Amino acid sequence: MKHRIVVLGAGYAGTYAAGNLARRLHPDDVEITVVNAEPDFVERLRLHQLAAGQDLVKRPLADMFAGTGVRLRLARVEAVDPERKTVTLTDGELAYDTLVFALGSTVADHGVPGVTEHAFHVTDWAAALRLRDRLESLGEGGRVLVAGGGLTGIEAATEITESKPGLKVTLATRGEPGAWMSPGARRHLRRAFDRLGVAVHPDTRVVRVEPTRVICDDGTVFPSEATVWCGGFAVHPIAAAGGLEVADTGQIVVDGSMRSVSHPDVYAAGDSAYAIGEDGRPLPMSCASAGFTSMRATAAIIGRLTGREVFSAALKYYGNHISLGRRDAIVQMVDGDVRAKSWYLRGRTAARVKNGILNGAAWSMSHPTFGMPARRRRLRAASGRAVGAAVV
User: Fold this and answer.
1) What stretch or stretches form a coiled coil here (predicted)?
2) What is the pLDDT of residues 47-67, one digit of tens each?
3) Model pTM?
4) Superfamily for domain range 115-229
């Protein structure tokens, strides 16, 4: 009997995990199934571009996994039962021997009234298209309020302003936008806001979203015909509901091999994993973290099943790349304590670097088993019930 590996989610983390496992494990011994609700791989890091009116390349998952041996099942995950080792889908039930939980995250409303009913966001393809339609419906002088001064908020505000200069875009944020960056990078960010015409309101917390305005904690009211909520991310509650041990964030608590501390046949990667980096802090929800955690998880699974010692990726966070429209960006590196270094890139050079990073990530996702076969390992036990190799 083949060892059944089920990967939930085909984002950056899930797609990499499925492809790497297919490349490294012998097909006579394993059966790999990827479950995803949508038929295409989504470049989440470019969804603000889609919302601003730009077209993105469609990347069908069926084409990406063609010839790899990976089975694609288009369905939505409704529940996970780690005791029975089953996953409930919209079209039935799926059993597993090893589960890779990579369902990612969605927008977090933080309990702010009106966000769900009236705000837009850019955390998935359909949501980005809804925002795109709304922006295109606004006439000259249409007012857009972006709530949140993190990476997503900065990129959304600058992209929308550059692509649709007839709109009036306001950025409202609890603190200073880009406060984590070096002084030089923050100065460049402020100049970019001024150049594009983004009206920035720091130290402003939105407490209610209404159809045509937002209300802030100090009583300030901003008119807004399209409110873009960029207030952070929340993970799917499926893991907690299934009895997996989770952190306060709802993320699955994992050990250094990305293995669930409560259920050893479950691994988590990407935003779904509450993973502690080498600096002793939880890894942030990001594309970079998705790469490192999926590398660590797949290395652990391969080592466990084949009985071989497998070296895994370091869990480090190197920095941020922030687009400021299509021709400007900031690349800010951080040190081992996740503090901004004085060194950073800016302008067109940074934009080219960021675009290269995203293109490279998209290419690797589109070729999940590039170089296949690559020393495809046999399982220690033909039945697929192998356990226990160390991963260092």
Assistant:
1) none
2) 999 999 999 988 999 999 998
3) 0.90
4) FAD/NAD(P)-binding domain (3.50.50.60)
